[in-house]
Specification:
Layout: E1 6-11, H1 17-29, E2 35-40, H2 53-59, E3 62-64, H3 82-87, E4 92-97, H4 101-108, H5 111-115, E5 119-125, H6 135-149, E6 155-158, H7 168-185, E7 189-195, H8 196-199, H9 205-209, E8 211-214
Helix pairs in contact: 4-6
């Protein structure tokens, strides 16, 4: 993969950015010895990457999260090791950032240091979310996140889904939407994230070129 050492994952609330972040960190572990994921989501109290601490420790991925060890509360307590995560040249690092411009404010604190290292910032689009179901809405949140964080989005992720009920048509709709956002911004589509059972049914060549099959690590088996 051509991605930079530091990868920031952001997107509107409900886009599936945490699920992508977790899958991305797992994938990176296949080719990198030292991989870390930092949970900087101070907005969403549900489906946080920190909830999978035992899983990450088992596969050898370091996880950094809030210094307040209570997953039932939501406060802007940032991990003390963040500077090392950002600047360590020997570690592949993933930052899972809050899913809207308010959540992206956490990045502003580190924007100076981030700009001095090689980074990618991925913007995850779920075309089945009302706020990002069209080009205008997707662009609005992309620009707000860039403005709030002081950083530039370098890649787009199509993650249009309906969880376990995701159909090929959902993925194709999201692909066309993300492609239009790409045309408007000149930001390339980096990945097409698709749940594995649906990924097996994809025939669209454009999607297949950047297909990124994912597991639903953040949803328990009983969840729909």
């Amino acid at each position: 993969m051509l991605d930079k050492r530091l990868v920031i994952v952001t997107g509107h609330y409900g886009s599936g950015k945490t699920e992508f972040s977790v899958n991305y960190a797992v994938k990176m572990k296949e080719t990198h010895e030292n991989v870390s994921i930092a949970d900087l989501d101070i907005v969403n109290p549900y489906f946080r990457s920190r909830e999978k601490r035992e899983f990450f420790e088992k596969i050898g991925v370091k996880i950094f999260d809030s210094s307040i060890k209570n997953t039932a509360i939501d406060i802007p307590a940032l991990p003390a090791q963040m500077m090392g995560v950002i600047l360590n040249p020997n570690e592949k690092s993933v930052l899972d950032v809050g899913g809207d411009p308010v959540g992206a404010r956490v990045l502003a604190r580190y924007s100076g240091q981030i700009k001095n290292t090689e980074y990618d910032m991925f913007y995850v689009i779920n075309g089945n979310r009302p706020e990002t179901s069209n080009v205008e809405g997707s662009l609005k949140y992309l620009r707000m996140i860039e403005s709030t964080s002081g950083l530039k989005v370098t890649g787009l992720i199509n993650n249009t889904h309906m969880l376990k009920d995701t159909k090929v048509e959902d993925v194709e709709f999201g692909h066309e939407l993300t492609k239009k956002v790409s045309w408007e911004t000149d930001i390339p589509i980096r990945y097409e994230a698709v749940i594995k059972k649906t990924a097996e049914k994809i025939n669209n060549e454009e999607i297949l070129e950047k297909l990124f099959p994912i597991n639903l690590y953040m949803r328990e088996e009983w969840m729909s």
